[in-house]
Specification:
292 residues; alpha/beta; Rossmann fold; 7-stranded parallel β-sheet
Length: 292
């Protein structure tokens, strides 16, 4: 089997998904890892969402465990990884796939400090806690382990001006990229590979709703069209299975010499240089609203 993960234990933090049609990146990742032989621990803030993922895995003949916790609480993170170790005897894979967007006022371009802090707590601090609690367990194993943190191309783009909804989210993901680099350098000598998946335009629930929300409440069809148009590669945005496939590769033996990488999965979007007409229109709209 290509990317054979038989006998390995994978913890996917963010392995449930928000209510809505279709699959999210976390659930698809759990299913993908299971299909390659891993036992999957799906972690979510709401146990029922994680359990739905595990039920889907079980229907395909896979094995797993649903687990509920809040990534903001370091003690809960520590307990998660200790519980997994106690149950299975090892942790081979960890994926941090948790992310939220900022609650903000589009017209006034403002947000509360509580909302900003919540964004950074979930999108960045939780990633730090999970790495610090999981990597030492992996380091104790002869076979080490592999960690993938899911970031965003928002961390590399710069055409949105000073839009706080997009800006703070981009800052949290840019910081995640740096944390991936720092932790990869530290843990590599211990046999723990840490890489960052810089994710672009995939047809996930959060991907579509995020575009709608961050661009002032546009309708779903327009959000999909804008998402598609921003992909350089012919065919537009792809599915969450692209995410799952990339993560499966990064945690497999086929990537055993890959550490500290920012793996960009965006259909070539961030290759482009120069002004983006869609974003220029958005900036003009915001400017007119500010003057009104």
């Amino acid at each position: 089997m290509e990317h054979d993960l038989s006998g390995r234990v994978a913890v996917v933090v963010g392995g449930g998904q928000s209510p809505g049609p279709g699959l999210g990146n976390g659930r698809a990742t759990c299913l993908g890892l299971s299909r390659h032989g891993a036992t999957v621990v799906a972690v979510a803030r709401h146990l029922d969402r994680a359990q739905t993922t595990i039920d889907m895995i079980a229907k395909e003949g896979g094995k797993g465990w649903a687990y509920a916790m809040d990534v903001v609480d370091r003690d809960q993170c520590a307990k998660l990884f200790q519980d997994v170790k106690d149950k299975y005897g090892r942790i081979d894979i960890m994926v941090y796939n948790v992310g939220i967007t900022l609650e903000f006022d589009f017209e006034t371009n403002t947000a509360t400090l509580d909302a900003v802090n919540r964004l950074f707590d979930v999108d960045l601090v939780g990633c730090v806690w999970c790495t610090l609690e999981c990597a030492p367990i992996m380091a104790e194993q002869e076979t080490g382990g592999a960690i993938v943190n899911v970031s965003s191309i928002a961390s590399r783009q710069n055409g949105t001006g000073v839009h706080v909804g997009y800006g703070f989210y981009a800052l949290s993901k840019a910081a995640m990229n740096k944390w991936g680099e720092l932790s990869a350098r530290y843990y590599a000598p211990m046999g723990v590979r840490i890489n960052t998946l810089v994710l672009g335009q995939v047809a996930s629930i959060m991907g579509t709703e995020g575009v709608q929300y961050l661009q002032g409440g546009i309708d779903q069809d327009e959000a999909v069209a804008r998402h598609d148009a921003s992909v350089l590669l012919k065919g537009g945005r792809k599915t969450v299975w692209e995410t799952a496939n990339a993560i499966t590769f990064l945690v497999s033996d086929e990537a055993k010499f890959v550490a500290g990488l920012e793996f960009v999965l965006d259909g070539g979007s961030t290759i482009a240089r120069g002004p983006d007409p869609e974003l220029l229109q958005l900036k003009m709209k915001m400017a007119k609203q500010a003057q009104a």
